[in-house]
Amino acid sequence: MRRYYDLPSLSALAVFEAAARHRNLTRAAGELNVTPGAVSRQIKAVESELGCPLFVRRGNGVALTSAGEELFHVLASGFSKLAETARSIKQGDTSRYVAIASSEFFTSMWLIPRMPDFWRRETDINVDHVIWESKQNFRRSDVELRIRYGLGSWVDEHAELLFGDCIYPVCSPDFARRHQGATAADLVNLPLLNVEWVEPDWLGWEEALLRGGVPAGALRARRFGKFGVALQAAMADQGLVIGWHRLIAPLVEQGELVRFTDLVVPAPGGYYLSHSTTREMSSSAKVLREWLLEQARLENARPLPTDVES
């Protein structure tokens, strides 16, 4: 007997959605608490019923075929709407909820200090701050708003520019005193702290120096997985880190970090507020979005360092 909606097994579709979201069968298996073999069998069952391949193997992961991309986008949108409906039913009409994803350091250094203003205005909205360090968190079904750095072009997302930024070297006050008189050309011979960032548009030392007109060659920089950890290392007198002005200005103002040399480079991207084009924003998300755009206008009223190149 055929199913009423003539669809493959819903459990198999859920397995496919997890594999497509992770682009990796092993990680999908971990999320679903099953074996990779079970994931593979479910996907093969869906492919057999639809009569076409949904994945092709590539390196350590998988890539979606055009049919797989089409199916994934529909499922991701549908599951997001189901999650939103289920959440509304659980919470009742008196509770309003919105999830926003942003990086750990952006959340702690820019967003959280401004949130008290939002709480004073919107006492009945619950905000879930999703700290994303991977695309798994970033694509969680309940996330409606995202703040991310880049060029503003992402698949199935509408992005609004919040503000641009500039970068410059920063270090501890003691480090600056020991290397007083150093110029931008001397940076390549000093201990540099690099951040291995999750976004491809995030600048490392090599590109930052290139954009600043400083010949760099092959750099030997100490590597960190998080911006916040690299800044802690800089404050602990371990070297120089690239300072993103919009995020670290309070630390400079407080004297925990100091600018080093007169090098200032315009950031090639900007900080964007984005939301999915495949689902309708909830009323709570719309309220939070308007507040964020207002805060961005206030941020833009504070000029970047005057010696930044145009």
How would you summarize the topology of this molecule?
Layout: H1 10-22, H2 25-32, H3 36-50, E1 55-58, E2 61-64, H4 66-91, E3 96-102, H5 104-111, H6 115-121, E4 125-131, H7 135-138, E5 143-150, E6 157-171, H8 173-178, E7 192-195, H9 205-211, E8 222-224, H10 227-235, E9 240-244, H11 245-253, E10 258-259, E11 265-276, H12 283-300
Parallel strand pairs: 3-4, 3-5, 7-8, 7-9
Antiparallel strand pairs: 1-2, 5-11, 6-9, 6-10, 6-11
Q: Could you explain how this protein is built, in words?
A:
InterPro entries: LysR-type_TF_proteobact-type (IPR058163), LysR_HTH_N (IPR000847), LysR_subst-bd (IPR005119), WH-like_DNA-bd_sf (IPR036388), WH_DNA-bd_sf (IPR036390). The protein has 310 residues and is an alpha/beta fold. It has 2 domains: 76 residues, Winged helix-like DNA-binding domain superfamily/Winged helix DNA-binding domain (Arc Repressor Mutant, subunit A); 215 residues, D-Maltodextrin-Binding Protein, domain 2 (3-Layer(aba) Sandwich), CATH 3.40.190. It is built from 12 helices and 11 strands. Strands 3, 4, 5, 6, 7, 8, 9, 10 and 11 form a 9-stranded mixed sheet that branches. The termini are far apart. The model has no long low-confidence stretch (mean pLDDT 86).
